[in-house]
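## Example pair
The file below holds two records. Each record gives the amino-acid sequence first, followed by its structure token line.
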Amino acid sequence: MTQEIRLRFAPSPTGYFHVGGARTALYNWLVCKRLGGTFILRIDDTDEQRNRSEWTRGIIDALSWLEIDFDEGPYFQSQHKDRYLEVANELYEKGLAYYCSCTREEIDERARLRGGVPGYDGFCRHRGLASEAGYALRFMVPPGETLVNDVVRGAVAFDNSTIEDFILLKGNGTALYVLANFVDDVDLRISHVIRAEEHLPTTPKAVLLYEALKIQTPVFAHLPVLVNEKRVKLSKRRDRVAVEDFRDQGFLPEAMVNYLALLGWSPGDDLEFLDRQKMVELFDLSKVSKSPAFFDVVKMKHFNKHYIAAMDSDEFIKRCLPFLERNSWWQGSELQQASFRTIAPYVKERVALLTEVVEMVDFLFLDPSQLDVERYTLSDADVDMLLKFLSKVESIENFTRDTLEESFRSLGEEIGVALRKLQAPIRLSLTGRKIGPPLFVAMEVLGKERSLERIRDAIATRH
């Protein structure tokens, strides 16, 4: 009988959506699409003190933005507490688990007295305690070793003597993650467990539970850790890791998905830029590396720039609108939209993030008094060049990029100034910035009256 393919992504809603979680969700999704399986979203909200509903909403919204769609869910662990108690009782009734009255202080004190490795020593294993308030339920780890067959890491053997009889239920009856995770995976008929490397140490506990209840174990794959430029594991407290932040900075979901897919996996043939269909076609879990993967924001910006440049102008304009709408100067009038449509194709080639578009075009919609020309110093030579350029273009009737560029080049030859040096003070006068869209396109969109007014204002301000 062919095994049903069912994979899950099971984040905990304890903070912003981490890029490592996004990579895990993506790999699960790719395997599902490649094998024709079912992708499930499960929210592992067993940590009641740290869970918040806005984090759950953030996870769902971020997955939607990345276009990582799920077929079932979201399911919530907090809704299955009775089921965990049911399985815990089954393990107890079968003699596979026992109740323990030991407090943490007692465990630590015995460990101190005996020396050696700290931790629980099996004190209550054969005491035959019954369920009582405050008593934890522990799984009875058998002797021998537990083998975890991992697609990424191969066969990993764990000596059972290093695994203490782990807690299934706390003294208050709350299920611990290892039990809840196991029960949900069984009930959801999960065939593949693809998750972060940090879960590998707890995986033998899950395998022991599968074996104890004679249930087929799923395929395991533990993904390589993501590290920063210092090759230290990414931290929410230290590094930029929130998917929501990258979205708000103007990264495109298709660029981010493409980049995340390559953090630990290579399609071969030096391929980098892959659409989703190509990723699904080529993705192979067995080719995922176990070495740490460097999350390089600079390289992800390179991907983003590639995808922005490849967009058609209409799509680019559509993607830019939410970023323009954040600014008080954008009312979305027909005149504003027409100006933006004209300049958008030139801006598209020059930005790596959609947030950069705002600084490229705001000069079109601001009053001259709002420009930042005064941040920069215009020298006497700059003012002299502005005066000469002004006299050169004042008489132009057909105020287009071509006629402006012709006048500009003519002036450069007349006064013997490099075009780049001549362009700088003109750009500052018009836009208040040192970089921006092509100068003569900017002047054409501004129009003759506003362009000349800004140059005159810059000269007057300098004097």
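Second record, same layout:
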Amino acid sequence: MADFASKTVLVTGASRGIGRACAEQFAAAGAAVGLIARDRAALDGLVTQLGARAHAVAADLTQVAECRRAVAEVAAALGPVDVLVSCAGVLHRDFVENVEPEDFEQSWRLHVGAALWLTQAVLPAMRERRQGRILLVSSELGLIGGPSYASYCTSKWGLVGLAEVLHHELAGSGVSACAICPGDVQTEQLRGEIAWGPTGGTTFAKAMSAERVARVIVEAAAGKAPLVIVDRPHLRAVFKLLGGPRGLSRAIVRDAYKQLLRSRAQD
């Protein structure tokens, strides 16, 4: 495992599932960890478990002001954020005809909105120090469209797009971004998916553990890859294929926008 001693890592969705497992593993790697979620009691319990180098902020990340407050409080308590793990999420299963406006808005604001506002809050200090890593936890359903996942796929695709925009805009800054796309994970969210109806994925018993996904996220935080798919080897290959030749597309986009990116870097 990479060494994150002297680093501050901010993890959203830290009260449960993948977010909690990330917080535990970053702490084990020596990081000071900022914990963000709505459940204050669960966060306080995690702080007790992790010790003095953990700091919790209860916040509703669908609100712009709350995202900014959460980053400011973590930075004041632990120091400037070196790694952002935007992991907070929600899943509404819905066919396109049945999407409820409030479900769509919650999905979009918590996935894409929170990732954007949190990124805006941590970026100035990262750029100033010329170092930082932004990890946006999407899904394999951020690479393909899954029937009955209209709200979820739309917002998770948005996260992959945001990570790619950051990949280009941060080139040469010392800061980098990555979209993390896990397959099925043993969380309460997956239990809810299965209870709703057939998922097209694996059974709960055969799904990955949150701890396994968290280990990959910690490794990704120490690397530079712009896209990481978390699954069994053959499924990683399938999803790289289904998600399109993203490495080639990034190169094409970089070339198409090179004049804009060059002029921006000189400002």
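Notes on the second record: The longest strand covers residues 175-182. Residues 101-129 form the longest helix (29 residues).
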